[in-house]
Amino acid sequence: MSDIQLPNSGKSPADEPDAGRTPVRFRNPGLPAHRHRQADVDPRAAKRAERQVLAMLGLSAVGSIFFIVAYFAFPLDGTFATLQVSNISLGLGLGAGIFFIGTAAVHLAKTLMPDTEMFDERHPQRGTEAERTDAAAIMVQGGQESGLGRRPFILGGLVGAAALAPLPAVVLLRDLGPAPGDALAHTLWDEGVRLALDPSAEPILASDVTIGSVFHVIPENLYESDHFLDEKAKAAVLLMRVDPDVVDVREDRAGWDVDGIYAYSKICTHVGCPVALYEQQTHHLLCPCHQSTFDLTQHCKVIFGPAKRALPQLPISVDDEGYLVAQSDFLEPPGPSYWERG
């Protein structure tokens, strides 16, 4: 294989009339002399590298096991302290499991696997039968040269670490929330349940909600639930007050608000992100994840973005003490469309 270099005349090839016809050729210098690694020439260094790889695979397995143990050992009780301990423990375990299996693979490749420089000329994608047979033989030879067959401890450690690495993900699958069905059909909202501030759970007086204000709301009885985090994921609400004249009230929703105070599900109907941005001037609610936009003046109809369904409205009224209360549960399913019930 030869390379071509044009004469150095200080001009571009386009300026040289004979540049394309009078190339200057030079000899291919080839590959530099191969430098053997210490593990290639010293059996003790090879054994040391083997032990290092095995230790990293062991640490990966320990990290995966620690993740599973921490998941059950540090349950959430609703406080930020337990949430912090749980997150840190899970993060350390999962990070160690992934990090050390990666470093073991890199160290194995750099110290024990063959690193002789090779090149192969490009050829048609499908070769002859003889070439295909040779390619299969090369693959077998590569596996033999990798040394894994001669190093059963590393092979066993690699298999063990790889087998344990997916287990944290399997454990996390059970934490995706309630199973479909009746668990998603209803929330904690019911007739007479007071609207309360998130996260203090203090009930909200209608007189405290001024025009232009917005409140993040939960049911007052949320923390009485044994699975209040799951329930909050379904029942979270945004409360806003606007001039009643700006809303085009539908006949079937007359009486669902309190003098311009409206309550809508906070869970985006696209994939369930929290809708947390309210534009006071335009009366738009925005989802920060995928920019779905809902118009409060049209009962939170979708006016932009991937969401296909309006935010469900929570019917509200005022009790004898002046506190805002729910008239009922949502009359349509909150959350992403795949939560819909028949």
Automatic annotation (TrEMBL):
<comment type="similarity">
    <text>Belongs to the Rieske iron-sulfur protein family.</text>
</comment>
<dbReference type="GO" id="GO:0051537">
    <property type="term" value="F:2 iron, 2 sulfur cluster binding"/>
</dbReference>
<keyword id="KW-0479">Metal-binding</keyword>
<keyword id="KW-0560">Oxidoreductase</keyword>
<keyword id="KW-0408">Iron</keyword>
<keyword id="KW-0472">Membrane</keyword>
<dbReference type="InterPro" id="IPR036922">
    <property type="entry name" value="Rieske_2Fe-2S_sf"/>
</dbReference>
<feature type="transmembrane region" description="Helical">
    <location>
        <begin position="53"/>
        <end position="74"/>
    </location>
</feature>
<keyword id="KW-0679">Respiratory chain</keyword>
<comment type="function">
    <text>Iron-sulfur subunit of the cytochrome bc1 complex, an essential component of the respiratory electron transport chain required for ATP synthesis. The bc1 complex catalyzes the oxidation of menaquinol and the reduction of cytochrome c in the respiratory chain. The bc1 complex operates through a Q-cycle mechanism that couples electron transfer to generation of the proton gradient that drives ATP synthesis.</text>
</comment>
<keyword id="KW-0812">Transmembrane</keyword>
<keyword id="KW-0001">2Fe-2S</keyword>
<dbReference type="GO" id="GO:0004497">
    <property type="term" value="F:monooxygenase activity"/>
</dbReference>
<keyword id="KW-0411">Iron-sulfur</keyword>
<dbReference type="InterPro" id="IPR017941">
    <property type="entry name" value="Rieske_2Fe-2S"/>
</dbReference>
<dbReference type="Pfam" id="PF19297">
    <property type="entry name" value="QcrA_N"/>
</dbReference>
<dbReference type="Pfam" id="PF00355">
    <property type="entry name" value="Rieske"/>
</dbReference>
<dbReference type="InterPro" id="IPR045603">
    <property type="entry name" value="QcrA_N"/>
</dbReference>
<dbReference type="GO" id="GO:0046872">
    <property type="term" value="F:metal ion binding"/>
</dbReference>
<dbReference type="GO" id="GO:0016705">
    <property type="term" value="F:oxidoreductase activity, acting on paired donors, with incorporation or reduction of molecular oxygen"/>
</dbReference>
<keyword id="KW-1015">Disulfide bond</keyword>
<dbReference type="InterPro" id="IPR014349">
    <property type="entry name" value="Rieske_Fe-S_prot"/>
</dbReference>
<protein>
    <recommendedName>
        <fullName>Cytochrome bc1 complex Rieske iron-sulfur subunit</fullName>
    </recommendedName>
</protein>
<keyword id="KW-0813">Transport</keyword>
<feature type="transmembrane region" description="Helical">
    <location>
        <begin position="153"/>
        <end position="173"/>
    </location>
</feature>
<keyword id="KW-1003">Cell membrane</keyword>
<feature type="domain" description="Rieske">
    <location>
        <begin position="234"/>
        <end position="325"/>
    </location>
</feature>
<feature type="transmembrane region" description="Helical">
    <location>
        <begin position="86"/>
        <end position="109"/>
    </location>
</feature>
<feature type="region of interest" description="Disordered">
    <location>
        <begin position="1"/>
        <end position="44"/>
    </location>
</feature>
<keyword id="KW-0249">Electron transport</keyword>
<dbReference type="GO" id="GO:0005886">
    <property type="term" value="C:plasma membrane"/>
</dbReference>
<feature type="compositionally biased region" description="Polar residues">
    <location>
        <begin position="1"/>
        <end position="11"/>
    </location>
</feature>
<keyword id="KW-1133">Transmembrane helix</keyword>
